[in-house]
Amino acid sequence: MASFSSLNTALSAMRYQQVVLDVSSTNIANGGTDGYVRRRVVGETVGAPATPAIWSRTNEIGAGVRASGVDRMVDQYLDNRGRAEHAKQSYLDVQADALARVETGLAEPGGNGVSGALADFRSTLHDLVNAPGSDAARSQVLSSANTLADAIRLQARNLADEAGDQRSRLIATVQEVNDTATQLAATNHSIAAASLTEGDTASLLDERDRLSMKLAELTGGTAKIRDDGGMDVEVRGVSLVAGTTTQQLQIAAGVNPDGTADGNPTAYTIGATAVTGLSGDVGGISDLLDHKLPDHLAGLNAIAKQLADDINLQHTQGYDATGAAGTATFFDYTDPDVAASLTVGITDPKQLAASSQPKDPASPVMVLDTGNADALIGAIKVDDGYQRLVNQFGTVVASTKRLAANQQALTSQIDSSREQLAGVSLDEETVNMLSAQRAYEAAARVMTTIDSMLDTLINRTGMTR
């Protein structure tokens, strides 16, 4: 009775095409879902019995089709490469964004930065040389000196604020790492449980891949798929997630729990094991806190100290309007935070030691000599050093931006390859749905035809009319 077998074959085709339609519908519904991976139904031909009977043989050609499973359209090589490239991208992006903010705060080149304030300070000293008896000229010198000190302090404060923001971000990022690791361990547990019951784990695997990508972006961690479908993650060879168990990433040095600096380079542990060389967001922030921001601040402190010491030394070589020797605190500061603490130490314009000759207390005539004011101009020797500092920082910023842009090109290429495989194409799904629809209609037509044949065989055989 091959006809009855044909009914089952047509029924299997209808059921299979219904599964295809369901999967295509799910793909279309999740076309914009972050982390969703396109599904594809795997069909399997149902053949004749593999074991022949002892006293009979089958005359069946085949028994139709069945859905043997639903594949996620992923490539493990591309996924591993994608995690590695995203870790590098996050590392560079964190630095590029922070350094760009600091660079904007420098206000260089321009008239609002330290170089502009230096030029104004020198200009007011020239005005004093040209108008030795002018109290207004003396006041202008002190005013421009205060502006210069303010510009240096502002730049130091911008660096300190950026460092403070990065320390707070580091604390939050480490907490995010631990939370994500906990979520991945819970997902691994759910995958293992679903696998035992042969349930659909596709959505759980999507979540697993999303979480592992997040850990890679945060720490540069590498992932490995387990036999039960879960995923282990290691950071620089130290296990962060192993099946359903996790270890905590902790800040061992560099940042206190309240977000302040402890004066040491950043250091990390996972469990009881020290881990170094992290990538991703954590590694990028560490490089900012340990090198790039402190290096520029150290250069700025050196410039501020040189300026203050040279001006203070020359100031002591002159005499103020009362005939007294110049003080050694024209600029005042506190080591080692010179740039952040730089201030003008004198407030009375008469205390400005512009003269190179003392005034005779018995003489009512004011000494109009401004030789020391002219010498103070020559004592300003930090212009070239400051310009080098700015240029060096600009080179670091430009290099980091360039590396981030180059890395973005590579990351985008990998993402594009992954998207071509795992992403949902509405056009492709529409074609799949139309194909499944036509196949379903054809199978239904086969069933109708077989039904008609059986009706003739059963009800009309032997009839004469």
Automatic annotation (TrEMBL):
<keyword id="KW-0282">Flagellum</keyword>
<dbReference type="Pfam" id="PF22638">
    <property type="entry name" value="FlgK_D1"/>
</dbReference>
<feature type="domain" description="Flagellar basal-body/hook protein C-terminal">
    <location>
        <begin position="423"/>
        <end position="459"/>
    </location>
</feature>
<dbReference type="InterPro" id="IPR053927">
    <property type="entry name" value="FlgK_helical"/>
</dbReference>
<keyword id="KW-0966">Cell projection</keyword>
<keyword id="KW-0975">Bacterial flagellum</keyword>
<comment type="similarity">
    <text>Belongs to the flagella basal body rod proteins family.</text>
</comment>
<feature type="domain" description="Flagellar hook-associated protein FlgK helical">
    <location>
        <begin position="99"/>
        <end position="330"/>
    </location>
</feature>
<dbReference type="Pfam" id="PF06429">
    <property type="entry name" value="Flg_bbr_C"/>
</dbReference>
<dbReference type="InterPro" id="IPR002371">
    <property type="entry name" value="FlgK"/>
</dbReference>
<protein>
    <recommendedName>
        <fullName>Flagellar hook-associated protein 1</fullName>
    </recommendedName>
</protein>
<keyword id="KW-0969">Cilium</keyword>
<keyword id="KW-0964">Secreted</keyword>
<dbReference type="InterPro" id="IPR010930">
    <property type="entry name" value="Flg_bb/hook_C_dom"/>
</dbReference>
